[in-house]
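Hi there, hope your week has been kind to you so far. Please have a think about how the structure follows from the sequence. I've dropped the whole record in just underneath, so have a look:

_____
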Amino acid sequence: MRFINKNIRRAAGMIYAVIFLVIISATVLLSYMNTTKSLKQELVYSNTALLHQIMEKTEMIFHEVDKDALGLLQEPEVRMFVDGNYATDLERMQRHSDLMKKLENVMNSNTQVHSIYFYAYGQKLYLSPYTSSEEAAFFDKGWREGFDSFDGYFKWLGVRSIEDRTAPFPVSKQVLTLVRSYPTLSSPSFRKGALIINMDESMIYNSALNEDVRRLGQAFVIDKDGVVISHSDKSMLGKNISSRKEIDRILGSAGEGNFTETVSGVPSLIFYASSGYTGWKYVSVIPSLQLNRELLTVRNWLFIISLLMFVAAIAAVFTVNAITYRPIESFVRSINKQLNSRKSTGTERNNEKLDGNLEAAEGLFDSFLLEHDNIQQQVRQNIPAMKWRLVSDMLMGYRTQYKDVKSSLDWLGIRLHSAHYIVLSAELDYKSRIPSKDLQLYSYAMCNVAEELIHSESHGMAVEMFDGRVVMIMSFEQNDPQSNMLRALSVADLIKTFVQEQFRKTVSIGVGRPYEKLEDLHHSFREANEALQYRMLLGANQVISIEDVEDFDSQHFYRLFDLEEAVMDAMRSADAGTVYKQLELLFQRTLQENIPPKMLKQICLQLVHRALKIGSDIGIDVDLLTGEDTRLYEKVELAEDAVEIKRDITGFFKDLLERIAEKRNARGSNETVAHILEYISKHYMQSDLSMNRIADTFQLSVPYLSKIFKEYTESNFTDYLIQLRVNKAKQLLEEGNAKVIHIAEKVGYSNSHSFIRIFKKVTGLTPGEYREQMILERSKTNVHEDK
């Protein structure tokens, strides 16, 4: 008892010190592990976002150049250059000069552009800002090898070295090349020319990559074959590095991702992202030592904090221990005295003091339990956010293994089968008209109803992803894609009916394809969102499966191109009835042939752009037009319904046609030109009809005749005569079975080969192909009418 009396505070202090040491060490260790895990995830997310930022900066430059290229291809000088249809050599030189100036303007407006030039397939002629040259003498013909056999409309070629000997200061540069076909939307067999834009690789690297390369460690760009497109080490440009282990793994992967690999003997973390625009892959290589630097800093700080906490705890233990155990020591001494003296006086008083200290301990324990309840309540409140984060990672393809997410799913109360998934994406129609608070309530209610309906069919969940869009994941036990799809469509129909009956609103739901593995879930999510976009064409309150809408045939696009040309022809002649008729036919065709919504918007914006060009050529104040419709492009891009686009585009053309009519009425008529046009309509079939002959007939000078003819017809004589003859030839081809050589003679061409060549340049088809197409369309129309 004497030993206890002397060492009870020290023994208790040592016990408490050990307990505190274990608690603090465990707390710090768990904090370090949790912080390390979170920090690693944040490092991965931040570096992935940084690589995306680099890719977006680079492609923003590419898109700006591509936008300038599209605008340049709409210039009338381009068509004349590739066709080579000039009335005189003087006109050819003047047109070439105008086009060279426009090329130079594009080059001067973009510092990244190293060189730019046109190539005419038929003429085998190059035209740059400084000179025109025959193909054999031109310095750069290497672009054709990577483009002539390409089926698309444009292509970004990899890095290549060129030496522009036509520029004022010839230099050799490593360039990235954009090649766009002319006409803009044409297959290889119908190309008339091409626009080639070479961009300085070093300036692209400095603009988009260099400012972030220190934070990324090493960043570069490769093409689909593993050839280096852009790199800080210029000696690497153009080299094929696909044999490297990490590059081979990147080339075999789609989309984006990251993995660890040893690069040049250094353990590193590899990030990569794929460009859907150019097909290139953006890569960053970060040494693990650089990534672990922040982790080491966190570890050191946690160690220092734990040491300070332990010292403070020990000091507090011995201070509190000295105060706390003083009554116990008194009690022990009293007991010791009582045992020695066989007396019991003072025992009750010491017990009262002990009871008082136990009450204090009880209060402290109650406070701890209350704090524990508060923590549990906070966890319950954060469950929706945790659920949203987990589902987002699964839908975006960040978490792809079922075994890795199963524990999280179980903790959140989410039931999913280990395979066979379908994603549905639902969104209230016309949500811009719904107040934000109501939209949140509708989305919350739709999530709850969707989960009830899903659980009645299978396992799954529903979450509100963003801005009122609800995403549902359904998983099935059986591997029966057809049956699973039917069950998913059934759930979607029930949700649609519920929203319509309970909310008095309509909802559209996109349904992706069924996939077996969780790692493919993001494909179904992307397809569901793409299917939902077809609401613009199919209308509101629809259940749209991706399998029902992805049947667009690229051949339909050429028929749309013909309709677009018909609209432009009617605009040039200010034929309002034909314009409205062709627009109506264009929108009907888009709905019948399942045109993707993005393509419909692109066609509409191209129609507006070309119509504005026609108005500008006539002399209408285009700034006034665009000033009144500054939001037209934005309306088209954000439209949720094809009817809205049709209304806005039709209104724009109506306004433009009225201004054209006002312009022409203000200009008055010209009897001389009227007589000339009548003369041409009577003699167009004569092969020797020319501007010189008409000038002699009407006793006018050729320059004056050219001036008044273009002023009042808004076209030059050659184009007008060619278009008139081609239109007459179309009528003859549609009306009977006359031979092409006889039709050529009837419309003023003594040489049938010249007629065929000109007809194909204007229509894109030979006379025989045009006749076959008309016969096929008439047969389809007859079959449809019979039905």
Observations:
- Residues 1-6, 342-362 have pLDDT under 50 and may be disordered.
